[in-house]
Design brief:
By secondary structure, this protein is an all-beta fold. The chain has one domain. Helix content is 0%, strand content 23%. It has no helices and four strands. This is DUF1540 domain-containing protein. Pfam families: DUF1540. It comes from Vallitalea pronyensis.
Length: 57
């Protein structure tokens, strides 16, 4: 499936395993949800955040 036509160029993504990843390193969603990581009580580094919109291909 070619997802390049649905690429949202405002959201870059290099996670090939995500259902919403496009072949040109963008996300096909209109928006994403970023949350505090499950192993952190608050976000003070990039490692403390997760993309909650991720869906495995």
């Amino acid at each position: 499936m070619d997802l390049n036509n649905n690429a949202n160029t405002s959201i870059g993504c290099t996670v090939n395993e995500c259902r919403h990843h496009t072949n040109n390193d963008y996300c096909s969603l209109n928006h994403i949800n970023v949350v505090t990581s499950s192993n952190s009580s608050h976000a003070d580094t990039i490692q403390c955040t997760d993309c909650a919109s991720f869906e495995k291909k």
